[in-house]
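seq:
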Amino acid sequence: MTWSDYQGEIYRRGREDGTLPLWACNMLELEQRAIDTLDSAARGYIAASAGNGRTARANRDAFEDWAITPRMLRGVSAPDTSTVIHGRSLPAPLALAPVGVQSLAHPDAEQATARAAQSTGIPYSHSLAATVSFEEIALAAPASTRWAQLYWIRDPETVSSFLARAASAGFDTLILTVDTPVLGWRPTDLDRAFLPFAEGIGIANYTSDAGYMSRARATITTEGADIAPRYWERVFPHASLDWAEAATLRSMWDGTLLIKGIQHPDDAQRGLDVGFDGIIVSNHGGRQIDSAIGSLRALPAIRTAVGPDVPILFDSGLRTGVDLFTAIALGANAGMLGRAFLYGLALGGEEGVEHVIRSVMSEFELTMMLAGAHTVADITPELLSRVDPGPHGGRERRE
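struct:
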């Protein structure tokens, strides 16, 4: 079975009994339908971005800079979408990014996402800001490829405990997210005065940690206070985290170590110098700095800086199979879906996430065939052309 069999499956069902897909196969249309189903708090937290949304728009606009130049008659009848990331063979150059507070999208939350990842063979990344714990994910999807995300909080004992628990629960890759030394200015959340963590939502990894709760009780002594979220406000975030402290993580984690949130080539090289095994080029989906560079525009220079052999993953703005193809051509080894799978979760729980994964990968595989790429390694810059921005140096913005 290939990824693109999903296309044939959809057509066959329609032909045989008139069954139509439950959810849109156009990922941008699916996104809008999902947003329309969310309540105002969930919509504000999930769909909105920092500031005026310039970075989120830049992420999508960056893909418009490039067009595929397909090559013909290369006999690509059975493209190989498999790849090797950090020594592990995967069926696709795709993973699910760490996304927090998934219960805002669907009550089955992270467990549904992890099960969908398991059923498709795609790595699942567990956010530290999740609504379920590391251990619950391991029980929900025991055969999944599991990666754990870390925000380095100002409580070293809890950080050490998180690492030990993640390793014990079968997470073999650790992702240090470094683009959130403070929360960005997010007007939509601010207008509703809604921060889920302050209300005890999305801190399950914390509340399930005995040491964290012990220190919370010892620190938060105000009568009647909800100690877990109040202590979270004391220890998150860690604005003083620097390269010297980040370098100590290498001695604390035996598995693969990735650094996420890199946009500058010098930071990518510095990450490798202090012991990280790979880079995730990301701007947090535009949720941190308004007017930051589009993630895709940062990618080629980072690939040049670190050379051909360093694993680079890419996220922020990736929605479609063509997006994935473009990111790989520009230097990524794999892409990561963030909001895209969350919209599938909002519409259909586990099946909705699986629909998004299969749709993205079906389009990716078909694009390989149509562009003349037998393997993922064949997806090179030679299959892209830069789009002429026109006589005025830009193109009209699509709202």
